[in-house]
Design goal:
two-stranded antiparallel sheet, alpha+beta, 393 residues, globular, seven-stranded mixed β-sheet
Length: 393
């Protein structure tokens, strides 16, 4: 394994960092999350037109750039540094791979070029707070019981004249209030014969109500979807099994999320080191005290270890090795530690709404609620590797 980045990968990172530095500073970030969309459409257009970010990991045959998960993870690391609110995670990391893996030729030809160009945003909707389970990050559910298993709740699909109709409610859908296309998991066939296929729903479909929710992490907007006999199109064919594709997606998404968390952790650590070098106490910089140096050194080691794990996870995804969940656990732990120390060492200003350091702590807490928590990510990784079975023999 050659751990060095290629010149093309370094260029992606450099160009994206420069663009975000100009277009997504603290003031621009606050203005973006306060808009109804929860992000800056002009910035998203620039990311799409100048860098091809939405189609970075899509094949060229479908209008994409043709890069791998590694390049997408590097892009996520840069957006994570500035907590850039954008449809990148919901569209390029969660929805687009499912369309590519499961869609019919007509669906791929009709949707993926529009996603790659940035004109179509998408969101993945799974019932309740079960996104981590659906992606097999915190548990393995081969029958899809996280979707309701045919019981009341979640979203139910029934055949109707001309297609399908969906009925139910989905909470905590990332960018669900603004996405123009929804990929909705719904169960069919009743309890005994329940299946969990995925359906395509237009954002302006009749019977669909979307409400943006107040989220802990304002830079990661979420929505509640209510579906009342909403017309939908089956993703793929009648015999398409969505559950293995969701499990594969989970590892890819975890690698990108880990890189994103590492970018955020590295940035908040940089800000904290800079601040303690300027703030004085007892006539000397706070950063000159040995206790402060030790605390920041511990965070630095955690961030560097998490960065290595995230890079390896992105590379390993193409090799068929499933280590994304463990890398995500490492990265979220590092982000939580870096943000907590940042708030503490910034003193009183670190607790104020005006300073952006608290946003990094909320990103760590919010991602754990959505994709974790850390101890469950690690426990599932240990179970998958049969760690405790081997120890017990």
């Amino acid at each position: 394994m050659d751990a060095r980045f290629t010149p093309e990968q370094d260029e992606i990172r450099r160009t994206l960092r420069e663009l975000l530095h100009k277009r997504c500073g603290p003031e621009e970030l606050r203005a973006a999350v306060a808009t109804p969309a929860g992000h800056d459409p002009a910035l998203w257009t620039a990311l799409a037109e100048q860098l091809g970010l939405p189609g970075l990991a899509l094949p060229e045959s479908h209008g994409g750039v043709g890069c791998s998960v590694t390049e997408l993870a590097l892009a996520c690391e840069e957006t994570g540094r500035v907590l850039a609110p954008s449809p990148l995670l919901a569209t390029a990391v969660l929805a687009a791979p499912l369309l590519l893996a499961l869609g019919t030729d007509a669906q791929r030809a009709g949707l993926l070029p529009r996603i790659a160009s940035g004109t179509l945003t998408a969101a993945l909707a799974v019932p309740g707070p079960t996104l981590a389970t659906a992606l097999s990050l915190t548990g393995h559910d081969p029958r899809g019981e996280w979707a309701g298993g045919g019981r009341a709740g979640g979203v139910q699909a029934r055949r109707a004249e001309g297609g399908w109709r969906l009925y139910g409610q989905v909470d905590q859908v990332l960018d669900g209030h603004s996405a123009r296309l929804l990929v909705v998991a719904a169960h069919t066939g009743g309890f005994a014969r329940s299946r969990v296929p995925l359906f395509l729903v237009r954002g302006d479909a009749a019977g669909l109500t979307r409400v943006r929710q107040t989220a802990l992490d304002a830079t990661r907007p979420q929505a509640r979807l209510q579906l009342r006999e909403v017309p939908a199109e089956l993703l793929g064919s009648a015999d398409t099994d969505a559950l293995p594709a969701l499990a594969r997606l989970g590892d890819t998404a975890a690698a990108c999320l880990a890189a994103e968390a590492v970018g955020a952790a590295g940035r908040v650590l940089e800000r904290t080191v800079e601040y303690v070098g300027q703030r004085e106490q007892f006539g000397r910089p706070v950063g000159s005290f040995q206790a402060v140096k030790h605390r920041l050194a511990d965070v630095y080691v955690q961030v560097q270890a998490a960065r290595s794990a995230a890079y390896y996870a992105a590379w390993a995804t193409a090799q068929g090795e499933r280590v994304g969940g463990l890398a995500l656990a490492q990265a979220l732990h590092a982000l939580r530690s870096a943000a907590a120390e940042g708030i503490q060492l910034h003193g009183g200003i670190g607790f104020t709404w005006e300073h952006e350091v608290h946003l990094y702590f909320k990103r760590a807490a919010g991602d754990e609620l959505l994709f974790g928590p850390v101890h469950r990510l690690r426990a599932h990784a240990a179970d998958a590797a049969h760690v405790f079975e081997e120890a017990g023999r």
